[in-house]
Amino acid sequence: MDRTVPAAGAPAATAPRHTAAGPAPTGTLLSVRDLDVVFDTARGPVHAVRDVSFDLAPGEVFGLVGESGSGKSTVLSAIMRLLPSIARTRATTLRYRDTDLLSLDRAALRTVRGTCIGLVPQRPMTSLSPVTPLRKQLRWFLGDLPHDELTALLDQVGLRAVAERLDAYPFEFSGGQLQRLLIMLAALARRPAVLLADEPTTTLDATVQAQVLRLVLDLRDRLGLGVVFVSHDLGVIAQVCDRAGVMYAGRLVETAPVTELFDRPRHPYTQALLRALPSRYTRGQRIEVIKGTAAGANRLPGCPFAPRCPSADDLCRDTEPEPRAVGTATVRCHHAEVPA
Q1: Is pLDDT of 16 > 80?
Q2: Global pTM?
């Protein structure tokens, strides 16, 4: 487990009591402030996440989008306290409702995971044991649930037929079926208030992807879930999210309501991502790509996007911008426009 750094002298917190029954509470479900994650490697420390802050409300879908290696999945692992032992996690606030997640001991964390915060992992084809029948694996998560109750759970995610094939192995099911099964385990088995979805559609074809997205939104509407949805696909973010944060080199460089993010992007990286969408081009047009890579961006002074930004100047290359409000967005850019 990762090494966490709560406030000095803070006592270990107890796990929150979570009940599935009753209306969803008002207020913030998840609060993240100034989250940093550093991996201590043989080649020295690697700063994977820097100063990430956001809130999640009941019934809200908050998206995290960015290219591979930007830190999206690491943020989810930090929230769940599932990072490896070489990771150091720090945050001013990492809180589920009134519970400080950084102060929980191992026993308390086990009661939070799944019960309060559910996780849909990447790669459904490899997230379950390939050598164990599905029935036995479901018992690990659900206990000895009566067959009719298990069938009812499967039916809620469109998998009623799977109830008759529980002695089969995961490789005997499709990727879409396994993804629905993982969503069932994360969102329905213990009815958490927060669902962390880590690129749940990446390995699926377009038709199954649409079905999974509809399932996530249906569960959000029925259960009042707050969802953090990680994706590298801006099209998916536009379909399912209310707000989104764009990550680059471990930082949230822009956070805004989805409509504003697409209609009026403020950060040069967000603008470049949108210009690279194939849907914006007609047949025969050359797609405008983002030149360069993010490799080594965390080791440079100034704005990490400066080496790839056509608008960068000496201020950008020398001084890292602080997040600031621009309209309803929060942007890390020295030159983001300020409304009159």
Answers
A1: no
A2: 0.87
